[in-house]
Amino acid sequence: QTTLQEVLPKAGLVYSEKGNLSEVLCKPKIMPLKSITLERLEEMEKAAAQLTQQQEAEMAAGENAYASGQQAEDGTMMPPATD
Fold this sequence. Notes:
This protein is an all-alpha fold. It is 40% helix and 0% strand. It starts with 35 loop residues before the first helix and ends in a 15-residue tail after the last helix. The mean pLDDT is 77.
């Protein structure tokens, strides 16, 4: 086991602190659970999913109208589907 010897300078300043060393607690920081970027990305995904559902519903309604020979949105008649 090696021991280290204390060396004190013969000239210059000597700084010494032998006070009470204790823990310093800082104010807790509130961290967001989700970052702003992640929230924006989730909103964009949600909007895209809603748009896809809406388009699929419109396509299904259009196919049903075409199959039964109903009037289209622009006022023209759509012929019935032949199987």
